[in-house]
Amino acid sequence: MIKSFRHKGLEELFLTGQSGKVPPGLHAKCLERLDALDHTVEEGDINIPGFNLHFPGTEDDRPGLVFVLDDAHVWKIGLMGALNNQKQHYVANRPSRPPTHPGIIVRNNVLPALMLSVEQAAGELRVPPDLLSGILQGTHPVTPDMAIRLGKFCGNGHQFWLRMQEAHDLWQAQDRLREELAAIPCRQPPLAA
Fold first, then answer.
1. How many domains does the chain have?
2. Looking at the domain assignment, is residue 161 inside a domain?
3. Distance between CA 99 and CA 48 in Å, rounded?
4. Which residues pair with 74 in a beta bridge?
């Protein structure tokens, strides 16, 4: 989970999907990486082909991750959990935009980095090309079976892919049920003193 932002433009982009402080041509690429980082629990989760992320010792000795998009855009992001042993706190707000579908991460980062076509990747994953194509388009979910396959293929395990899919599915369901949920009462009892 993303813990903090030093770059306010990245925080604004993460929360709203828009930012005047990040070049417009980098918005989609930044959002993919920010969403992936937000679902990271262990360093290896995002050590996938095409991500160009680094965990170096930093000049200011503050833990974090260096987020490289190109030669002109290098940002450092603080992460929560196993990546950062400092006192934990959350970014106060969560995004008001849909999270990135995990298939988009594979389509835009993994396959180009490995120089594989959809058909080649489907063959290596041992799935039909039309199934992989639906995932890459974001129209088919990453099932537990596919998450295991992607985890083996990318070398980062299945949990990351499942967390990304779960976040995507929950956001879609909450958005779809918004009006209906407003009519459902909350029956949670008060906490005992």
1. 2
2. yes
3. 19
4. 68
